[in-house]
């Protein structure tokens, strides 16, 4: 159809000029759309917005009348196909009848949808077959070619459909297979669908009352794609197999699932999607299998037979009314009530085809017979001709509204093709069907994101997908739970990078196309796992446990590791042996080793990048299962034969699982450690009574526990009850805090008691762990030698002799000791005690060991710590370091209110393996054998003391070391606050002297692991446990002389005090107005910062009870400087970000790791001893721009960058803290948080409620901008506060500094201008008071999109095209005040989108350009753009869908000017054909292009609307008749608005919007007021219907909009509009997903606003429908 327009431009009744123009309204073609047929054209008209939200009626209703909907235009193609379309299955062939028919057969159909995109050739190669068995049938149908076996006498139909739901022609991607088997006898069948690479799908299908339609898909778990192993399921084995095949080319038939010629991540993504997904196919009941009866008294057959109406024969039946009938009616009675929802009537597209009428339906409901009359009208507008989906057929559908049991239908025909009047002479019908379930034929756009693919990176995943047409952006949802994607990101292109992810964790992604408030169909969910960019580091926390001929090895999880390798060798060997292969867990057992041989063990961590370095070497010695009996002393031992009975108080208190054959009478005295008793429960009575044959004098006994490592040291206390000959109780003794000795037994000591006949021993266990146990018990007659030696000294510290001690006494005891052959106490230590006594007797006080009485009470349960709501380390340095296995003697005088413990630790320990079992001290003598902690070399380290009582001054100790243990330098300044500066420096000087001498005596190598290289610095706030050499090195950096080092340490202690002063003030542990000069650390526990072995990737870490620091960072920990030295307002010397970061971890109360702990880091960075006006890392790292964009967009959920999210917390400080109390906000915030304020609310709500309470402001918008979720209840609570007037979400460090410096608010105004270049819009911004401006909030079409601190801003619109935008900026001054909004000029983004050259290779040779898509891909291409100088000559473009395909000519044409944009045409179309055709192109060949010209490929064009240039608005000169109907005419003198469009008439409509003046003349001096709304009226979308019927979604056409001026006047009067015509108009082009539902609309194109001409300037427009009329 061609429309010709003749314009007469009139001005003051004079013809100024006239010209003619032919407007060719051509359709155009989309990708894979050949064969698609246009549907009947319909008219949509509009009247006011009240109709906009009404759902449009079904298509047949739409054709009855014009519906006036504001801005909805008319002549649009209906019924285009889409992926969701599935054909209705015809009923089975029916037997011949005259009046009544009988049906005994039906049809079974299959629609197999390829919802995971696959190429046609790939699907064909996979040999998909349908098998149908049952009822003596065994039918096999090849869906590849439609061939069938076992189908004699049946009708078989197989179609391959494209993604639009019509038959394939030249397309490369398949949408579905549709197979129909008709003529099947009723009964039950078994359907099975198979194919190479698919999981088979089977289902039972029963033909009874209705034909059946089975729906399967490759993407919903019914016929899953991805079974590459052929085992019938898609599971982890398939993922592993496909992962191993990535990049290979020799098994494409198996692993190349999508058929793009390469095995890549797309194929892997298919398997990931379908893993373990299973579903049953959907089965629909379609056409009823009934025996209808036609009443021949109302209708007769003049051609064909009534039977043909129902037997699917496609034979045309001509029906005529009987002579007496008033109407042409077809009464049909069913043999039984039949449930149906729709009646379908098919007619040939010829004379007599039924177009309109009514259906009178009789049905049963609630046991009553009811009727309903349904009108139908499928007629096209007069003069419009269209082709239906089924070639040559016109189909009328009568929707019953719901499923009802129909008994009778009377179809009355009022209109047929080619006849006038309401009683047609005849009607021609080919088929009538009664349908229950409708296999959707609705025309709906496919808006789902397809082709989603992921590329894993280090902590990130790059996503790409196929573009969705006519959208402006995409939303990406993701998370670690497939059913709860709780994070989101926005993208304006079809590619994005999601960062901030955890490696080796599976994430799920889904992408949704967006356009304003409109959203498309979500993509399928895709999984991907981020992978490290490098090999992992060395594993840590290696532990080795001995077993019989084996070693059990465990290690800590290593960052970025996916597997581990374990190596071993005999100690001293050169080469390693690998144990097993790659190990996924963190433990294994190395077997086949030699008992008694020591082995070295190391572990490596690996991932997809390779294997990392060895861990530290651990040691282990295999030993036989079972235990060696410790060597028990024989001196004074009571023989076991003396024991006459052993009785348990509770015989049930036995762990029979561990001790299945336990016999209390024999197993505890058999000298065998492999027979033992283990208690069953701690609350059972553990007492065991041992009775002797005779009485004894006793003061100790020995207990050997069950020697398994987990049970050996579980006894905490004991109770000994001693009874005499007559059973009388002689004594009962209790002692707690016992520990197993280095000889693997417990010494159960008590005061000497005589006449003991029986001993009852009850054991108590240590908290948390296995039960107590005994494997052997040994009794001894009294020996008072240890007591006599202890009695030499005045108290338990053994530091002074009693006055009565003389040489004779010491000599006698020495003689007795030397006479012993074996003893339960270490004779070496006893000799040392006697040597000490001798030295003291000789007045040699230098013989004393380390004497200490300067301990404190430190406990997490202390009142101060509980009040603070914070705890740390309770360790106090003892001043001793020792190797594992060494014995340290500690002589003690202790308070009785709490146990004093000694805690062994590992020097250079690992984060999880550094602290040994605490050893409880008792008054007097304590021999402590240092346990081995972990399995690495050089075991041992410093000893610490813990005490939680109230009398620390009562703790007096002497520690004595003999072999492999040393006194080490300790700077004890815990009483810092009670010391003057002189005393402090004296203590420091003594320490510096001791440290210098100590380090000088250390070896010169191996210091990183030498347990001697240790020192402790103990202040009120921190305990520094560091390498001695590094402390000395750090002090010497201030100067090598002693005074310089003393001063450096003094300043360093002050710096640590200040560090913790700030941290405690942040958390509200001290008040916000506390001063540093009066500050005293308020808690008993303190931060313990230790030299530790780092795990992979770390140089510092926090572990709750300590902070680990690497060797190279330790010297800096004694180089701190307080702000009293660095100066107020200057950068501080408080140890930097790292330590503050780790202290923050240990003190964090909000629990957002790597975010809220950094509140402390920022506070310490900003601290300057005054107002805290220093810049932080957020400024130094230029984080504010990202922060501002986050809050500008206000997207839900937190940012995935920890530093961005940190900005939210820091801005609360920036907004509300003043100079005098710069930490007041968080001081009060954390006090409330720790008190449990608002504890019944979510985290987001608690933060908002407490922050608003502290600020005394309603901070709802602040937190909403940050993406936090607040309930309506919480928002209501926040409404009680005064609203925060500032935009505090736009504050930065400089903002607060400006405020503290009394900066003033900005005045003046902003201006902004916009310019567009392809997808980018550049804003140029200025302000008259720019020095006070922080930045500008950017708004696009009244929606905030970003923020800038610069004078220019570039908005890349990405996918958007052919749309108009008005930008505005809101200035924000440095105080956070919002200024007046400034608006830019309107810009239109409209350009020819080109395909990225990164996707293809281009070569130019011998006048031919060859473009080849990379990786064998096939990319949709719509045309070419040629740029050069003075282009001329003819050109030809040919394409191939794949490398092996034939060439297809896509375009021929002529070059001219400097730029040529050429759109492809349908294959074989003439050069003049205006339709646009998109090809899937793998290779393009272009000839006729000059060597110096540039060629680009054009992407999908997108919808576009434009006003007609030169004559947008005018008045018709003559009537214009656009159809054959009586009303299908636009009258002469009618105002019309003209324009052109590019789009799909099926889905598009156009609206014309107007701006009206509402200002009275009297008020115009105060400015013009306006309203904007859509103009009422109707419109016509005109498009060419080509002869070949191939219409696509890219048609070029012409629109006419006819305003309803009378209605406009009425509305204008109501709105106070003062003028007859609008000030401005613009056209808005909409696209709907469903042609029958305007609610799914989105704007896809707009024109710029243009001025509406005055009445005298309106041209006359002469529309002509034929060029001959211009003559």
Kindly describe this structure.
By secondary structure, this protein is mainly beta. Helix content is 14%, strand content 35%. It contains 24 helices and 94 strands. Strands 1, 2, 4, 82, 83, 86, 89, 90 and 94 form a nine-stranded mixed sheet that branches. Strands 16, 19, 20, 21, 22 and 24 form a six-stranded antiparallel sheet that branches. Strand 25 and strand 26 form a beta hairpin. The longest helix is centred in the middle third of the chain and has 25 residues. The radius of gyration is 46 Å and the shape is elongated. The two termini are 19 Å apart. The N terminus and C terminus are likely disordered.
Average of the residue pLDDT scores: 87
Give the overall form. Answer: elongated
Number of helices: 24
> Percent range for helical residues?
10-25%
Helix/strand/pairing class, anyone? mainly beta
Low-confidence stretches: 1-103, 381-389, 1667-1671
Straight-line N-to-C gap: 19 Å
Tell me the β content. 35-45%
> How many runs of DSSP E, i.e. beta strands?
94
Radius of gyration: 46 Å
Largest sheet: 9 strands, mixed
Features of the shown structure:
1671 residues, 24 helices, disordered C terminus, disordered N terminus, 35% strand, nine-stranded mixed β-sheet, six-stranded antiparallel β-sheet, mainly beta
Walk me through the topology.
Elements: E1 2-11, E2 14-24, E3 41-42, E4 45-46, H1 59-62, E5 76-77, E6 105-113, H2 120-125, E7 129-134, E8 137-142, E9 148-149, E10 155-161, E11 176-185, E12 187-194, E13 201-207, E14 210-217, H3 236-244, H4 252-255, H5 265-274, E15 282-288, E16 293-294, E17 299-303, E18 317-321, E19 328-348, E20 354-365, E21 368-377, E22 393-416, E23 427-429, E24 431-435, E25 453-457, E26 460-464, E27 473-479, E28 487-491, E29 495-498, E30 507-515, E31 518-519, E32 526-528, E33 543-547, E34 550-554, E35 563-570, E36 577-583, E37 587-591, E38 599-607, E39 610-611, E40 618-620, E41 643-648, E42 677-678, E43 688-704, E44 715-723, E45 729-736, E46 746-765, E47 773-774, E48 776-779, H6 785-790, H7 807-818, H8 827-841, E49 850-852, H9 863-868, E50 876-883, E51 887-893, E52 901-910, E53 913-915, E54 919-920, E55 924-929, E56 940-946, E57 956-961, E58 965-967, E59 970-972, H10 981-1000, E60 1015-1018, E61 1022-1026, H11 1028-1036, H12 1042-1066, E62 1087-1091, E63 1100-1102, E64 1107-1109, H13 1123-1126, H14 1136-1147, H15 1158-1166, H16 1177-1180, ...
Parallel strand pairs: 6-14, 59-60, 61-62, 62-64, 83-94
Antiparallel strand pairs: 1-2, 1-94, 3-5, 4-89, 6-11, 7-8, 7-12, 8-9, 10-11, 12-13, 14-15, 16-19, 17-18, 18-23, 19-22, 19-24, 20-21, 20-22, 25-26, 26-29, 27-28, 27-30, 30-31, 30-32, 33-34, 34-37, 35-36, 35-38, 38-39, 38-40, 41-43, 42-47, 43-46, 43-48, 44-45, 44-46, 49-57, 50-56, 50-58, 51-55, ...
């Amino acid at each position: 159809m061609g429309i010709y327009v003749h314009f007469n431009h009139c001005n003051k009744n004079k013809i100024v000029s006239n010209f003619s123009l032919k407007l060719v309204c051509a359709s155009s073609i989309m990708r894979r759309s050949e064969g698609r047929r246009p549907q009947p054209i319909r008219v949509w008209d509009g009247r006011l917005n009240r109709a906009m939200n009404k759902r449009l009626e079904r298509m047949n209703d739409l054709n009855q009348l014009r519906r006036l909907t504001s801005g909805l235009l008319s002549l649009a193609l209906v019924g285009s196909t889409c992926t969701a379309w599935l054909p209705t299955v015809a009923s089975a062939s029916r037997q011949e009848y005259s009046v009544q028919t009988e049906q005994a057969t039906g049809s079974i159909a299959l629609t197999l949808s390829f919802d995971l995109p696959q190429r046609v050739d790939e699907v064909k190669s996979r040999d998909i077959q349908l098998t149908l068995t049952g009822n003596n049938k065994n039918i096999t149908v090849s869906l590849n070619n439609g061939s069938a076996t076992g189908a004699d006498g049946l009708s078989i139909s197989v179609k391959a459909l494209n993604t639009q739901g019509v038959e394939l022609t030249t397309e490369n991607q398949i949408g579905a297979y549709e197979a129909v088997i008709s003529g099947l006898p009723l009964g039950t069948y078994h359907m099975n669908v198979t194919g190479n690479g698919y999981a088979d799908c089977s289902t039972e299908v029963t033909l009874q009352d209705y034909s059946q339609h089975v729906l399967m898909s490759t993407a919903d778990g019914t016929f899953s794609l991805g079974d590459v192993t052929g085992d019938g399921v898609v599971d982890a084995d398939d993922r592993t197999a496909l992962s191993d095949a990535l990049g290979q080319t020799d098994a494409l038939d198996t692993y190349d699932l999508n058929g793009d010629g390469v095995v890549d991540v797309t194929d892997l993504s298919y398997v990931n999607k379908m893993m373990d997904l299973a579903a049953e196919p959907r089965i629909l009941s379609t056409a009823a299998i009934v025996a209808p009866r036609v009443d021949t008294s109302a209708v007769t057959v003049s051609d064909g037979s009534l039977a043909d109406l129902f037997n699917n024969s496609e034979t045309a039946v001509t029906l005529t009314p009987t002579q007496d009938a008033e109407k042409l009616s077809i009464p049909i009675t069913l043999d039984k009530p039949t449930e149906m929802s729709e009646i379908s009537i098919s007619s040939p597209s010829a004379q007599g085809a039924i177009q309109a009428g009514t259906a009178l339906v009789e049905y049963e409901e609630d046991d009553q017979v009811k009727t309903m009359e349904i009108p139908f009208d499928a007629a096209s507008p007069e003069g419009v001709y269209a082709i239906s989906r089924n070639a040559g057929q016109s189909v009328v559908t009568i929707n019953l509204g719901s499923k009802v049991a129909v008994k009778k239908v009377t179809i009355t025909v009022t209109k047929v093709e080619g006849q006038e009047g309401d009683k047609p002479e005849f009607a021609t019908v080919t088929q009538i069907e009664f349908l229950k379930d409708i296999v959707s034929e609705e025309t709906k756009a496919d808006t789902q994101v397809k082709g989603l693919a992921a590329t894993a990176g280090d902590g990130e995943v790059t996503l790409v997908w196929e573009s969705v047409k006519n959208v402006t952006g995409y939303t990406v949802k993701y998370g670690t739970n497939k059913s709860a994607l709780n994070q989101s990101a926005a993208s304006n292109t079809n590619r994005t990078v999601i960062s901030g992810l955890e490696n080796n964790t599976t994430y799920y992604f889904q992408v949704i196309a967006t356009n304003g408030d409109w959203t498309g169909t979500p993509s399928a969910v895709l999984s991907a796992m981020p992978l490290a960019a490098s090999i992992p580091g060395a594993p840590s926390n290696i532990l080795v446990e001995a077993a019989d001929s084996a070693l059990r090895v465990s290690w800590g999880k290593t960052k970025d590791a996916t597997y581990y390798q374990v190596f071993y060798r005999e100690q001293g060997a050169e080469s390693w042996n690998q144990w097993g292969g790659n190990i996924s867990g963190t433990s294994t057992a190395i077997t086949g080793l030699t008992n008694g041989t020591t082995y070295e063990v190391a572990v490596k961590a690996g991932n997809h990048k390779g294997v990392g370095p060895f861990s530290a070497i651990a040691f282990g010695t295999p030993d036989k299962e079972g235990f060696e009996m410790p060597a028990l002393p024989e001196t004074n031992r009571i023989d076991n034969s003396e024991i006459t009975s052993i009785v348990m108080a509770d015989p049930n208190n036995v762990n029979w699982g561990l001790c299945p054959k336990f016999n209390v009478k024999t197993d505890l005295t058999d000298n065998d450690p492999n027979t033992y008793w283990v208690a069953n429960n701690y609350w059972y009575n553990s007492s065991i009574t041992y009775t002797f044959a005779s009485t004894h004098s006793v003061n100790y006994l020995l207990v050997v526990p069950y020697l398994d490592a987990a049970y050996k040291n579980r006894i905490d206390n004991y109770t000994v009850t001693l009874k005499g000959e007559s059973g009388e109780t002689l004594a009962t003794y209790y002692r707690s805090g016992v520990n197993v000795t280095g000889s693997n037994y417990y010494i159960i000591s008590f005061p000497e008691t005589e006449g003991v006949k029986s001993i009852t021993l009850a054991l108590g266990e240590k908290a948390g762990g296995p039960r107590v146990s005994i494997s052997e018990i040994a009794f001894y007659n009294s020996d008072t030698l240890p007591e006599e030696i202890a009695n030499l000294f005045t108290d338990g510290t053994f530091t002074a002799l009693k006055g009565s001690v003389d040489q004779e006494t010491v000599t006698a005891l020495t003689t007795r000791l030397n006479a012993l052959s074996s003893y339960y106490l270490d004779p070496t230590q006893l000799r040392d005690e006697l040597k000490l006594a001798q030295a003291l007797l000789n007045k040699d006080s230098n013989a004393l060991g380390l004497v200490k009485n300067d301990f404190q009470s430190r406990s997490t349960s202390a009142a101060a710590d509980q009040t603070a709501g914070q705890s740390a380390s309770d360790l106090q340095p003892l001043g001793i370091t020792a190797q594992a296995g060494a014995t340290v003697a500690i002589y003690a005088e202790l308070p009785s209110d709490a146990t004093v413990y000694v805690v062994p630790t590992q020097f250079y320990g690992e984060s999880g393996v550094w602290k040994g079992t605490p050893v409880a001290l008792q008054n007097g003598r304590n021999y402590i054998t240092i346990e081995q902690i972990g399995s690495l070399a050089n075991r041992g380290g410093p000893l610490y003391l813990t005490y939680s009582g109230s009398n620390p001054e009562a703790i007096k100790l002497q520690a004595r070391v003999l072999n492999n243990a040393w006194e080490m330098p300790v700077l004890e300044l815990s009483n810092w606050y009670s010391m003057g500066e002189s005393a402090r420096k004296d203590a420091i000087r003594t320490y510096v002297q001791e440290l210098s001498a100590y380090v000088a005596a250390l070896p010169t190598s191996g210091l990183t692991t030498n347990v001697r290289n240790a020192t402790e610095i103990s202040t009120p706030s921190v305990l520094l446990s560091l390498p001695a050499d590094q402390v000395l090195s750090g002090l010497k950096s201030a100067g090598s002389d002693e005074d310089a080092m003393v001063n450096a340490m003094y300043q360093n202690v002050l710096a640590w005090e200040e560090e913790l002063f700030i941290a405690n003030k942040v958390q509200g542990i001290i008040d916000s107005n506390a001063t540093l000069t009066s500050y005293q650390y308020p808690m008993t526990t303190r931060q313990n910062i230790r030299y530790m072995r780092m795990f992979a990737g770390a140089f510092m870490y926090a572990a709750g009870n300590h902070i680990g620091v690497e060797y190279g960072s330790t010297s800096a920990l004694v180089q701190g400087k307080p702000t009293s030295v660095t100066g107020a307002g200057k950068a501080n010397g408080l140890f930097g970000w790292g330590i503050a970061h780790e202290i923050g971890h240990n003190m964090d109360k909000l629990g957002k790791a790597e975010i809220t702990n950094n509140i402390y880091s920022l506070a310490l960075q900003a601290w300057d001893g005054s107002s805290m006006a220093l810049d932080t890392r957020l400024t130094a790292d230029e984080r504010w721009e990202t922060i501002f964009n986050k809050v500008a967009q206000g997207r839900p959920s937190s940012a995935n960058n920890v530093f961005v999210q940190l900005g939210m917390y820091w801005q609360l400080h920036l907004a509300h803290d003043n100079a005098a109390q710069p930490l007041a906000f968080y001081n009060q915030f954390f006090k409330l948080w720790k008190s449990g304020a608002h504890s019944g609310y979510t985290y987001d709500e608690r933060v908002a409620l407490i922050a608003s309470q502290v600020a005394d402001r309603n901070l709802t918008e602040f937190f909403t901008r940050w993406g936090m979720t607040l309930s309506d209840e919480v928002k209501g609570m926040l409404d009680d506060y005064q609203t925060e007037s500032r935009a505090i979400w736009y504050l930065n460090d400089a903002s607060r500094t400006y405020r503290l410096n009394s900066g003033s608010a900005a005045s003046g105004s902003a201006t902004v201008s916009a310019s567009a270049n392809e997808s980018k819009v550049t804003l140029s911004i200025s302000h008259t008071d720019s020095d006070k401006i922080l930045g500008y909030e950017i708004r696009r079409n009244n929606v905030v999109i970003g923020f800038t601190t610069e004078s220019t801003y570039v908005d890349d619109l990405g996918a958007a095209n052919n749309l108009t935008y008005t930008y505005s900026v809101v200035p924000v001054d440095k105080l956070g005040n919002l200024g007046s909004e400034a608006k830019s000029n309107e810009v239109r983004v409209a350009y020819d989108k080109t395909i990225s050259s990164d996707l293809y290779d281009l070569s130019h040779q011998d006048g031919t350009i060859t473009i080849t898509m990379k990786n064998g891909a096939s990319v949709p291409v719509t045309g070419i753009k040629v740029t050069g100088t003075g282009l001329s000559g003819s050109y030809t473009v040919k394409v191939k869908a794949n490398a092996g395909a034939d060439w297809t000519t896509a375009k021929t044409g002529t070059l001219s000017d400097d730029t040529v944009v050429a759109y492809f045409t349908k294959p074989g179309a003439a050069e003049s054909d205006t339709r646009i055709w998109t090809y899937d192109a793998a290779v393009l060949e272009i000839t006729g292009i000059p060597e110096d010209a540039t060629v680009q490929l054009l992407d999908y064009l997108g919808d576009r609307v434009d006003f007609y240039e030169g004559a947008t608005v005018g008045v018709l000169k003559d009537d214009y008749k656009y159809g054959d109907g009586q009303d299908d005419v636009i009258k002469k003198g009618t105002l019309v608005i003209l324009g052109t469009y590019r789009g799909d008439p099926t889905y598009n409509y156009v609206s014309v919007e107007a701006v009206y003046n509402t200002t009275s003349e009297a008020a115009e001096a105060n400015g013009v007021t306006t309203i904007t709304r859509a103009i009422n009226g109707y419109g016509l979308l005109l498009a060419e219907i080509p002869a070949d019927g191939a219409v696509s979604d890219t048609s070029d056409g012409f629109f006419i909009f006819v305003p309803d001026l009378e209605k406009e006047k009425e509305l204008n009067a109501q709105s106070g509009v003062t003028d007859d015509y609008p000030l401005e108009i613009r056209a808005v082009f909409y696209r709907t997903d469903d042609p029958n539902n305007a609610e799914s609309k989105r704007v896809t194109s707009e024109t710029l606003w243009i001025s509406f001409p005055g009445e005298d300037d309106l041209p006359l427009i002469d529309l002509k429908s034929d060029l001959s009329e211009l003559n």
